[in-house]
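Structure representation:
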Amino acid sequence: MTARINTFKSIFIMSRPPFHIVGVLPFVLGAIYAYKTIGTLNLPVFILSIIAVVLIMLVTYYNGEYYDIVEDELAPSMGKNTFSGGSQIIAQKVLPRKYALIGAYISLGLAVIIGLVLQFYFKTGIWTIPLGFIGLFFGFFYSKPPFRWVNRGIGELLIGFSYGWLPVAVAFYLQTSGFDSYIIWMSIPIGFTIFNVIFLNEFPDYKADRTAGNKRNIVVRFGKEKSIIIYIAVQALTWIMFAVSMNIRFSRVASIAAIPFLLISLILMIMAMMKKYKAPKILEAMCGLGILLNIGVSLAYLLGIIFGGLSI
């Protein structure tokens, strides 16, 4: 019994549930936006689709555990922190490596089943399966060959899209069978913040990724000195695009809610310019603040929708 409990506990850790919020919250944002637009919310569709979002993230995380094994084994001795280097469940041989692969395929199968149910039973629209396929395609092959997006220098961009526009638009579509142009403006700042989350998380893994040689992400390609310039630029663009979105459809609530996170972003930019990321503990704190920033931007839009100003 104890061994079984330990196994389930390890699977839970490998699933990285704290990181699910960065995918779930934008989805909730899209669903609430749909509710404010059409006045109804199909609860079974909402619950099933949230489960599908989590399953797609599990596919991505489990494949990462399996296919990033070399980098993850090197990471603890080369700068890994809480937000990088995977869960270490497979790398430290807490569970056999096959568990990650099995988990990925089980999650994939369940996500596909839910997609079929949504489109053909709940009749959520002809774009249900194509949109779900895009999310699965980018997630499934993020670490997995032959595409292995993380090795092609576009993985961070695909993450920005998959955790930005895609969940917001899909949630809206599943409730309305249509799209809304303002989703684009909301999703750009969210996509920029999650891009920077992934981007900065690559800094502590830089040595391990470079040594392993099969993870050619942007930081490995350009090095930390050039990459930090990209990081600062994306931080600035986040708030430029947030301001643009407020200009298109203003919300006093969203604007006020965003202020603390704008301050966090300014602090992160100052720390980056001062090269504080070179200190491992400070870098770890910056990684954590980046996740908080991503959550905060989504929350600002969500509050703006709930309390007025952003809904149609």
